[in-house]
Every structure is written in structure tokens, then in C-alpha cells.
Amino acid sequence: MKIRVSENVDWVGKIDWELRKFHGEEYTTHRGSSYNSYLVRDEKTALIDTVWKPFAKEFVENLKNEIDLKKIDYVIANHAEIDHSGSLPELMQYIPETPVYCTANGVKSLKGHFHQDWNFQVVKTGDTISLGKKKLVFIEAPMLHWPDSMMEYLTDDAILFSNDAFGQHYASELIFNDLVSQPELFEEAIKYYANILTPFSPFVTKKINEIVGLNLPLSAICPSHGVIWRDKPLQIVEKYLQWAADYQENQIAILYDTMWDGTRKIAEAIAKGIVESDPSVTVKLYNVARSDKNDVIAQVFKSKAVLLGSPTINKGILSSMALLLEMMAGLRFKNKKSAAFGCYGWSGESVKILGEHLANTGFERVNDGLKTMWEPGVEELSRAQSFGKEFVGALNIE
Predict the structure, then answer these.
(1) Is 79 noted as a catalytic residue in this protein?
(2) Fold match flag (3-244 vs 252-397)
(3) Residue 101, beta-bridge partner list
(4) How many CA atoms lie within 13 A of 259 on its CB side?
(5) What pLDDT was estimated at residue 397?
(6) Of the listed 35, 49, 79, 390, which one is catalytic?
(7) Is 113 part of the annotated catalytic residue set?
């Protein structure tokens, strides 16, 4: 399938409606995704990126129907991760001498993946290739989100091919931002940022300011996944600058797992206390063992504070909470407050463990947490409610 982006640019990628897990099992894609490849034609023709390996033969066959492969003058590999480069070996069988443009780190990554010595052409920021009347200007974007990442700007058409930046895992044949559901689009966009780009926020800010500082006209942003931003494309750039600046909303996330419902009851009582004390705050309550981990992470990203709860098991915490903490540590959230809570039967280490992990992960601890022995009764639930009021009160004072 081909979709016209501009007079000189066609989308020739693959929409993956069935995708539900990405990066192995690390990222959930409830709305599928797309692998965006672009054919840019002038006097010369450039192919920007390919698609994921399982669709390699389909991709190349579709491309053959669109263009004589030998008329592709340049292959551009913005990023060596397999969802972008997986079809390169299939394609390069037909055009083995065609130059492959990528960063120096891209050469290392592509050779590491495919063990092929293609006609690599190393580029850096400011380098260009002429297509005839138009040029592609290369922009290195290391750590957005791999060391090899880069983008291109197409002159005259004023299109930025942004690689993984500004993307979403979102399948739609409508393909353009103004044609899809806006709530769905931005839900997937912030989830994508929270789970993938958060630890690279300083690089995001630096690279965006560098690009914006060039004062280049911009008619569209074409990312590697999801829809193309053609209607007010700078809106997603502005969102990224907000999200990169230690983003938070007036929201508190309460995340817990429970064994015999005691910790759940404590979590609900804390939530009640928060809302009674400050009705303006949004409270999100998740049993992490029953919730999608990436959706939960997106809520952590949006929150100004989190409360984590787990009963004690074998002098430790439940495995779902350990996984969540590991993810939070890797994402390196900033400027967020925290506290811990949980029930126990005879040893009661969970609250201390959660609190220490939160502190080591970069969350500021508001207090020492709340421990409740056995099944919480009226008195314990009242104490949990007061704990919630005190927690939100401490946030408001600061």
C-alpha cells in the first residue's frame, strides 16, 4: 500500500494491526503500530528506512510494484533496530551496490545485526545528498533513543523524517494526525514518550532546541511509527518539550499489589483521604498485577507523586512491584514525591524495602510509610485515610 504524503514523498510502510507486544514483551501495543518507510523522489530517489523483519518479503514485493528497485539511488537507515532495518537484507539482495547512508554508530549496529558489508556511507549533522531540486539534510540524534539515531530534513517540501522521535504505536490507515481520534493519538504519544524516551529527556530538549533554532519551515513530521503530523506539526514538538521538562500533572498514582486484599483496602482508604483533603487532585489507583505495566508507567510519568503498596512475602515484596520498581529505575523519573504502604503478618519488611527502592530510584520520600498488621479493620482504615490526607497535605505545603 502507498499513501501520498506530498508531491514527492510516499509512505510505503506496513500497518501492523495485530501487534500487541513490542520490544519482546517490554511494551504493549493495544492499538497496533506501523513501521513507516518513505520513498522520496526527485531526479534521484531515496528510500528512508524499511520495515520489521517478519514483513520483509511483503515490503520488498510492494516496493517492486511501486518502483524499479534499481532506480533507488540512496537507502537511508535512520536507526538499526530491527523494526526499522529488518527488511534491509531482503532489499539489498536486489540492489547490493546501492549506498546505505547512516551514522558511524549506525554502521556498527547494522554490521552487528546483519554481518553484511554493504556500501555504507557515513554521515553527520549538516551533511546533505542532492535529489535534484531538493536536498536531504542529515541531523544526528544520538540517544533518541539509540546511539545511532538520526533524522533528515527535506528542503522545499519542509518535511522532517524524525525516526523514533514524535512517534506512537498506533495503527491507522488514515495515517495523518488530523484524521484520527485526538484522545487516542495523544494517549499513545505520551505512553510512547513515558516508556521509551523519558531517560533521554535532556537529549530531547537539546536536539529540539537545536532544530527549532534553525528556524526552518516545517510542513510535516514523518516519524517511524504511527501517524504523520501534517496538521500543526509543531504541536507534538511543543508537547515533547513539556514532557522532557520533568513533566507532571496534578495527579497522584497509587500502585499496589495485594495478597488477601488487605493492601488493596489500605490503598483505597489512602485514595479516599487524598480526595477528601484535596478534591482538585486526580487520583489513579492500579493493582499492578492486573494492570498493563506500560499504561501504569504512563500514569507514573504524568503524576507529581506516587504511593507504592505491597504486603510482605518472604521478607520481601510481591514480584509485580519488584518489576515496576525495576522499570521506574531504568526510566529515571525526576521531580516526583513518594511514599510506601503495605500489610504484613509477622515480619513487615515490605514498606521499608519499597521506600528504599523509591529513594534509590530518584523519588523523594515524603514520609516513612504506613504499615498495617494483618487484615485492616476500622481503626487501620481510618489511619490509612488520615495518611492520605497527610500525604497530599505535605505535597501542597511544598
Answers:
(1) yes
(2) no
(3) 76, 121
(4) 16
(5) 60
(6) 79
(7) no
CB 178 within 8 A of CB 233: no
pLDDT of residue 46: 98
Q: Which three cell numbers stand for residue 119?
A: 556500501
Is 193 catalytic? The answer is no
pTM of the model: 0.92
Degrees to nearest 5, angle at CA 167 with 164 and 173: 125
Spell out the domain ranges in the chain: 3-244, 252-397
Q: Is 81 a catalytic residue?
A: yes
Whether the link from the prior residue into 225 is cis, omega within 30° of 0, is no
Annotated catalytic residue: which of 7, 23, 61, 292?
A: 23
Which is the catalytic residue, given 10, 101, 145, 247? 145
Report the CATH architecture of 3-244: 4-Layer Sandwich (3.60)
252-397 classified as CATH 3.40.50.360: yes
> What pairs with residue 221 in β-bridges?
160, 229
The three grid cell numbers given for residue 316, joined into one nine-digit string: 520481601
Give the mean pLDDT per block of 10 residues along the chain (398 residues): 92 94 81 96 97 95 96 95 91 96 95 95 96 95 85 95 94 95 96 92 90 88 96 95 93 93 92 93 94 94 95 88 91 92 84 89 88 86 92 79
Give the pLDDT confidence score for residue 174 in this predicted structure.
92
Q: What are the b/e assignments for 239-258, b being 16+ CB within 10 Å?
A: bbbebbeebbeebbbbbbbb
Peptide bond into 79 cis (omega under 30): no
Residue 24's pLDDT is 67
Report d(CA 117, CA 108) in Å as an integer.
Answer: 10
Active-site residue flag, 145: yes
Marked catalytic residue, from 140, 225, 247, 357: 225
Residue 273 pLDDT? 95
Quick one: which H or E segment has residue 136?
A: strand 135-140
